[in-house]
Amino acid sequence: MNPIADLYRLQEIDTMWDKIRRRILQLQKTTGGSPELVEMRTRTRATETELQKVRQEQRDADGESGSLAVRIKESESLLMGGQVRNPKELEALQASVESMRRHKGALDDRSVEAMVKADEIGQRFAKQTSSLNSQEAEWQIKQQAVDEELQKRKKEYVYLKNMREELVKSIDGKMLEQYEYLRGRKNGIAVAKLEDGSCTACHMQIPVGLIGSVRRGDELVACAACGRILFAA
Ligand SMILES: [Zn+2]
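# zinc ion complex -> structure
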């Protein structure tokens, strides 16, 4: 191999390496699911929270209503029992029972409203859960494929890295520097093939006098138009 051919080979490795790096990043980004799936999970969780809140409201109303029922019963047996004889006390007791009954009525209404609401939210939650589950199952299958490809790409990445390290050892330091410099500024193409007497990167005709040097491949010949290193296969 001549030095320019080595540089060209290095560029092939680097191009592939970049491509694999981008693909790995892309694959890693999809881990966790699509934006739609993430949105779906959030929405379903919000519905569940809403459902729990309404059910708690119903339990609270039922609990309060239950303890009021006990207190109403106690007051009623006091009224019926005849132990309270003072008319003012009787009147007060009667008023308290009526107030408790009104309060209990309101609590029972609230309980029924919460129940109806919980029913509606429960149905919505069931629908969301079922479509989320099927989306999750679909995603699991896709994720498996993503994981498999990711493993494969990571191996390729390491393979290319080792290959590059090995190849770089045989490349002259100055040439390597020039290559890196051009690759950073020339859209990733530092070495351009010479074909039919033209630079394949910019299509400029190369002077005949230079073609011989390019063919020999032992020194660095730059395209006068684009500045890339010319390589003849
Ligand atoms: Zn050129």
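# post-check
The chain has a mean pLDDT of 94.
The helical segments are 3-30, 35-81, 87-168, 173-185, 208-216.
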